[in-house]
Amino acid sequence: MTKANVTNVTIRPEEAAFFADLARDWWNPKGKMASLHQVNPVRLAFIRDAVDAHWEDASRTANPLAGKTALDIGCGAGLVCEPLARLGAEVTGVDAATDNVAAASAHAEASGLDIRYMAGEVATLDIGTFDLVTCLEVVEHVADKEQFLADVAARLSPDGLLVMSTPNRTTASRVLLVGAAEAIGYVPKGTHHWRDFVQPEELEDLLSGVGLEVTRRRGIAFSPSKGLHLSDDEKLNYILSARHKR
Questions:
Q1: Which residue, 81, 137, 152, 246, is the most exposed by fewest CB within 10 angstroms?
Q2: What's the pTM?
Q3: How far is CA 46 from CA 91, 137, 163, 207, 235, in A?
Q4: Residue 86: which CATH number?
Q5: What distance in Å separates the CA atoms of residue 12 and residue 40, rounded to the nearest whole number?
Q6: What pLDDT digit, counting tens, does each position of 2-13 carry?
Q7: Total domains in the fold of the chain
Q8: CB atoms within 10 A of CB 230
Q9: SS3 content of the chain, % helix, strand, coil (to 5)
Q10: For residue 20, which of 34, 4, 9 has the smallest C-alpha distance?
């Protein structure tokens, strides 16, 4: 098994090692991480809407993050970092697995993008604060969610924007995201542990406890006609934006 660089108890070593083993296949849209490639446009659409709502005049430009810093926590091989860089941000990606960081760095270099990637636990890295922090499909994989979210909040600048997504803990997600998805190979076996899923109200309470308030929340749903899309249906997955309480 590939070794991962794990530096803090909020990250389970077995979780980091699991995703490190997928590093070389991360950018293959038809490979083991195909589900992330399919959901990524939906997540990015929400991020763009949240950015436009958070910063005045952002909607008027193709580069709304120009002059701003962005941090993607649990960046994997960079599927979110690269679009953020193309929106103008100075991007840092952090991941617990050194193999993921290596794959992300290589892909960014090949794409002509200047992105800083770092391996380790975000709380232990001397990287300051950021205008935009993204943390997508990560919180369900950490051992100490309260401490992890405190670490996330500490990386958000006073006027910054946080975007998070995670599966909901429902009967539907247990049947479809864990049982069916792994059975048919839509996601690798062992990707999800249903008991670690966080319900929206739980996550909002945890975020409130670290000084953040949710500003918008949408479900990520699937239908044969629309595929994956933003929806009011949060049974499977949801995404939200937050900021420091005012």
A1: 246
A2: 0.89
A3: 18, 14, 9, 19, 18
A4: 3.40.50.150
A5: 24
A6: 333 333 457 666
A7: 1
A8: 17
A9: 40, 25, 35
A10: 4
